[in-house]
Design a protein that fits this description.
Trna Endonuclease, Chain: A, domain 1; single chain; alpha+beta
């Protein structure tokens, strides 16, 4: 503690990104905005397919949605194009320190990402272990391998460390997943 002008002040470590107060989704949105503004990629969050069934109109200019339902199960959160390739991915967070629960990924999402891969696109998960402040990109190929070879109900952190790719926190873009895609698929990677 340091006294500044008679007030006690506690200084925080300003060199860490651990307490930014941002969620993974907000970080990815900021990254996607950065990519778009800097003409690197065009990637958007998909809207959730909802059908509105009841609306209240208190006046001509105001409408209040009172009731709605999900039309179809949503596939993944994000899609777009990067260096001429279609990319599609989902973002997940967990507060667990040692594993990522598979019930956080719906079977139709896995099937969707597998179809993207089958047809030549790039599919992956971005998973953040919030307590550890570690964010990983896990290609769909690695996820499918885990599902084929394991009966576990969660993916251990060690699997992410061995088969995934760490996405380092940065100022801009916050979640620079394109640098991982460059390494894997574009700069001498699989493409």
């Amino acid at each position: 503690m340091t006294k500044i002008m008679g007030a006690k002040t506690k200084f925080k470590n300003i060199n860490t990104y651990a307490n930014r107060g941002m969620t993974l989704e907000a970080d990815i949105q900021a990254s996607n905005d950065y990519y778009l503004v800097n003409d690197k990629a065009v990637i958007y969050k998909k809207p959730t397919p909802i059908t509105i069934s009841k609306v209240n109109y208190p006046s001509r200019r105001e409408a209040i949605i009172k009731e709605g339902f999900f039309r179809t199960p949503s596939t993944t959160d994000y899609n777009g194009i990067y260096k001429g390739k279609y990319i599609d991915f989902d973002a997940k967070e967990t507060k667990l320190k040692t594993a990522f629960p598979l019930n956080n990924i719906h079977p139709h999402q896995i099937k969707h990402l597998a179809c993207i891969y089958k047809h030549g696109g790039i599919g992956f998960l971005i998973v953040r272990f919030t307590v550890l402040n570690k964010t990983f990109l896990l290609p769909i190929e690695s996820l499918m391998k885990f599902l084929d070879e394991s009966t576990r109900k969660s993916i251990p952190l060690s699997y992410f460390e061995e088969n995934g790719y760490i996405i380092k926190d940065k100022y801009n873009p916050r979640v620079d997943y394109l640098s991982v895609l460059d390494m894997l698929y574009f700069d001498g990677g699989n493409l």
